[in-house]
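To whoever is on call:

I kicked off a structure prediction for a single chain this morning and the downstream step that reads the tokens threw a length-mismatch warning. I double-checked the sequence; it's 105 residues and nothing unusual in it as far as I can see. Pasting both halves so you can look.
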Amino acid sequence: MYLLYMAPLMCVTTTKGGDLFQVAPETGCAFVSTGTTTYWPTDTNKIPDVIYFFITRKISRNFIEIEARSSSDHSPIYLTISKTVIKKELNLKLYNKNTDWTSFK
């Protein structure tokens, strides 16, 4: 099992960030993140942002575990890559992408 610590890559959307976002799928790469905000600026005029993520290639998500750990103004993320499948607890939901919300009104 490998535990990696990721330093921040970028804080704002840039042209190079957009290029990276477009090229990654074309090269078989995938972005891995917690999907939540990892940076909270002290300036109230700024927006919280995701600045920590990993880029993987040819690694099934069944072998990856990612977690955020609290810090001062940011939450660094840790990626674990295992040689065996990592069993994950499923988040049970009462809805899915096919839920017809208008029929419940």
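Update from on-call: the warning came from a stale cache, not from the record. Cleared it. Sanity check on the structure: The two ends are 48 Å apart (CA to CA).
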